[in-house]
Design brief:
The chain has about 400 residues and is of the alpha+beta class. Helices cover about 35% and strands about 20% of the residues. The strands form two sheets. Strands 1, 2, 3, 4, 5, 6, 7 and 8 form an eight-stranded mixed sheet that branches. The protein has a seven-stranded mixed sheet with strand order 10-9-15-14-13-12-11. A hairpin with a 2-residue loop joins β14 and β15 (about 330-335). The chain is elongated. Mean pLDDT is about 85; it is low at about 150-170 and about 350-385. The protein binds 2-acetamido-2-deoxy-beta-D-glucopyranose (NAG) (9 copies). One 2-acetamido-2-deoxy-beta-D-glucopyranose binds near residues 264, 265, 266 and 267.
Length: about 400
């Protein structure tokens, strides 16, 4: 009898159209958001019944997200200003219908997904050909993105990596602005379907992406911040569209002999521009052997290794230890080393094997988030010396170009 009722409910659920509010209100963990929706009914109904934006996927904040918001802001999410409300709701709305299979099938690469947030303060970037092709064209894919990866409990940032962990396939991490990561609980099709597409549960609010300078400071990348401050480069980078910032960690700066303090402004500017790409390079679209021309005009080459679904990415000699740290005009990948030029890499490969970063020097297991990077590896003395020589030679090479 119960079983029949249950089956009937599934059949009805699948057959009859239902609004987002109807679908949400069946999920106890979303009771706060359901009240929130009802409190803002005119706005929410207008927004979610706009069929020209369908299909969409809404990431609904759980009751835990409401609690966390209150603890962090000493204010209720119920009191958020109308202006901020629209942007928040837009950023929680992914274009296209994404089911849990879409997250699990992108397990090793992760999935960059555009949202409805298009305001240029949070979104001074363009979609690019690949994202547009995947998400219904340049206009549809124009909004700021989130990056989603099934990789364990994202609330423990060290588990959110470019690799697989044993984890329930229903769970994934969602990366948004300022390096923030929240957990996503993907609902199955019976629970998570409504007229406009799908919805899933997130256990924290997504953070709107902001400038590279603020993102770097927030991530504790003090050496890079210092380099940017000394060269007065933040204004330029933050006011440019489509930027990838390849950001060496504090340890990487230290291992390279603290170029942020050791070099003069001219040299340092070259180094930073070498670490800046005039394109947005989401990690799921990177392929092995791909090359980019940096703003300094030197070539940066991507290397990717896959091992049992674990994916490790290098830019020249430097390994990515935190990918897709989203900014308003692109993103940052945090690196474990200061990059050297390809020419320099080739010559050190033959002359100084052992110290040269000629291959995967370590496994992906010491991947860390930027705040953790600081305390990780203490570089051996000779290695510091040799990396410093590489850097000095690299700078000499730059100067020779001028
Ligand atoms: C949020 O949900 C919790 C648990 O169901 C409930 O105790 C609380 O009153 C709700 N808060 C609001 C503002 O609705
Ligand atoms: C409905 O959605 C479309 C496409 O996203 C948008 O251009 C339009 O402004 C929206 N209409 C309203 C009334 O919000
Ligand atoms: C999501 O999965 C469906 C079914 O497998 C597929 O057709 C669709 O292209 C996927 N969407 C994206 C954006 O990858
Ligand atoms: C931004 O990047 C896209 C894709 O890489 C490119 O097509 C577009 O021209 C770029 N826009 C600017 C202003 O550089
Ligand atoms: C860089 O400058 C900003 C703004 O003046 C400042 O807040 C920040 O602390 C500086 N960073 C470093 C590492 O000195
Ligand atoms: C966006 O980038 C353009 C340069 O492409 C710049 O002129 C503009 O000020 C930027 N806008 C914001 C809000 O950062
Ligand atoms: C920076 O150092 C280089 C080489 O050490 C030198 O050629 C250049 O003039 C210096 N630039 C400034 C602005 O001091
Ligand atoms: C890079 O090359 C272009 C021309 O190819 C030139 O206009 C630009 O000034 C160069 N940039 C640097 C930093 O050398
Ligand atoms: C470096 O070496 C590789 C192969 O050994 C070669 O394909 C590449 O062109 C070299 N790059 C430079 C910049 O010399």
């Amino acid at each position: 009898m119960f079983r029949q009722l249950f089956l009937l409910e599934i059949v009805l659920g699948a057959t009859y159209a239902q609004t987002l509010l109807e679908a949400l209100s069946r999920i106890p963990e979303l009771s706060n958001f359901t009240s929130f929706y009802q409190n803002n009914e005119a706005f929410a109904t207008a927004y979610f019944s706009n069929e020209s934006s369908y299909p969409i996927t809404f990431l609904a904040p759980s009751n835990d997200a409401f609690t966390k918001y209150f603890e962090q802001n000493q204010a209720s999410l119920f009191d958020v200003e109308p202006d901020a409300l629209l942007q928040l709701v837009q950023y929680h709305t992914l274009v296209s219908d994404l089911k849990s299979e879409n997250f699990t099938s992108a397990r090793s690469t992760g999935l960059t997904a555009p949202t409805m947030l298009k305001d240029s303060r949070s979104n001074n970037r363009s979609s690019g050909v690949q994202l547009a092709a995947k998400f219904g064209g340049p206009e549809r894919a124009r909004g700021q993105v989130v990056f989603i990866q099934s990789a364990g409990q994202a609330s423990a940032p060290n588990l959110f990596k470019l690799m697989n962990r044993q984890s329930s396939p229903q769970n994934a991490g969602v990366r948004s602005g300022l390096g923030s990561i929240v957990n996503l609980q993907a609902l199955n099709a019976e629970q998570g379907t409504w007229d406009g597409g799908s919805f899933h549960i997130v256990d924290g609010l997504l953070t709107l992406p902001t400038t590279c300078a603020r993102t770097i400071r927030n991530a504790g990348l003090a050496s890079l911040d210092n380099a940017g401050n000394r060269t007065l480069i933040w204004g330029r980078l933050d006011g440019t569209k489509n930027v990838t910032c390849l950001g060496p960690s504090n340890n990487a700066f230290q291992a390279a002999g603290n170029p942020d303090t050791a070099l003069n402004e001219t040299e340092l500017t070259d180094v930073i521009l070498f670490h800046t790409l005039p394109e947005v390079t989401y990690s799921d679209f990177l392929v092995d052997g791909q090359e980019f021309k940096s703003l300094q005009n030197g070539t940066v080459r991507v290397r990717i290794e896959e091992n049992d679904g674990d994916r490790t990415i290098w830019f020249n000699n430097a390994r990515v230890i935190d990918a897709n740290v989203l900014t308003h005009n692109g993103l940052m990948h945090v690196l474990d080393a200061v990059m050297v030029s390809l020419e320099q890499l080739n010559s050190t490969n033959t002359t100084a094997s052992g110290t040269a970063p000629s291959g995967p020097s370590s496994t992906a297991t010491d991947t860390a988030s930027p705040s953790e990077v600081n305390t990780n590896v203490a570089a051996p003395r000779e290695k510091v010396g040799s990396l410093y020589r590489i850097l000095v030679t690299f700078v000499a090479f730059l100067l020779a170009l001028n």
